Amino acid sequence: MKMNKIVPFALSALLIGSAATTGEVFANEGVSSEVTSDEKAFIKVEGTIENVEKSEDVTLYTIKQGEETPILAVTEDTLIFDNTGKKAELKKGDTVSGYTDADKPMILIYPPQYSPEAVIVEKTTDATAVVGMFDDELIDPHLKLQLTIDDKTELSSVSGKKVKTEDLKGQNLLVFYTATTRSIPAQTTPEKVIVLDGNTVDEDASVEQIIESDHYIVDGVKMVPLRLIAEKLGYVVDSTGEGAIISKGAPSYTITRGQKEYGYNKSLQKFEVAPDLLEPKKTYVPVEFVDELKK
């Protein structure tokens, strides 16, 4: 488990054409819309699947990327499509691109391990799929890509909510397209757009629903949000700056991020994996701790 966010290795980018040219460019003409600045909403890891290791909750795909061999930790919640927008299955030998939220903390291990929101199988050179954060003008400043939505664009969301064009503003989007203009930002009318609005938890959700909809897999262990679940079970959660004190009458737990040991009243217990910030300002703990809180 990591204590600090790992700095991802650099991904090369090419500048798209000239701002003075307005013609459309197709994906196989060598013009990439994946121009990025130093700060990106999503980290892209690409390469060929070299090894597959399956366990109960997660499948680890080792990616051959030049001299690097990063790992994609894929769960049942990970979106998997080919770059034409069709659902796909991953297998050894596939050329893939994995997109991971750049704000998501990572395990400090080598080779680096990513928990991607989406993995794309690069099936054809005639189509492109990207993941990005698009503003109110439907521009991702890091991809330098602007979306123009028409009646033929298929819109959907991970949550299953119905989506209109205005709902795309300010959202993380998975976008499938075949052509762009040579302008900066490049403009495209995508064939398909998916809003990445997963891991949203209803206030009335049960503990089981929270676990199902909001979890990460770290070192093979399912990690769940501490405060959401503890408060749902009637505990008071007081932040300590480095963790939290959780209490309900006599039972009291003292939890510190980055440490496997935690206090229970005057005794010392141990987590299988140390609690950590797997989302900004949101501490996650091993799911087995839920059983402890239910005692």
Task: Give the topology, please.
Elements: E1 24-26, E2 42-54, E3 59-64, E4 71-74, E5 79-82, E6 95-101, E7 113-114, E8 118-121, E9 128-134, E10 139-140, E11 145-147, E12 154-157, E13 171-177, E14 179-181, E15 186-188, E16 192-195, H1 207-213, E17 216-218, E18 221-225, H2 226-232, E19 236-239, E20 243-247, E21 252-256, E22 261-264, E23 267-270, E24 276-279, E25 282-286, H3 288-294
CATH C-level name of the largest domain: Mainly Beta
Total helices: the number is 3
- How far is the first residue's CA from the last residue's CA? 27 Å
CATH structural architecture of the largest domain: Beta Barrel
Strand count, sense and barrel status of the largest sheet are: 7 strands, mixed
Low-confidence stretches: 1-38
CATH homologous superfamily grouping of the largest domain:
Copper binding periplasmic protein CusF
Strand order across the biggest sheet?
5-8-6-2-3-4-7
Mean pLDDT equals: 84
Report the order of strands and helices: EEEEEEEEEEEEEEEEHEEHEEEEEEEH
Number of domains: 2
Strand segment tally? 25
What multimeric state do the chains show?
A: single chain
Helix content: under 10%
β-strand percent reads 35-45%
What is the CATH T-level topology of the largest domain? OB fold (Dihydrolipoamide Acetyltransferase, E2P)
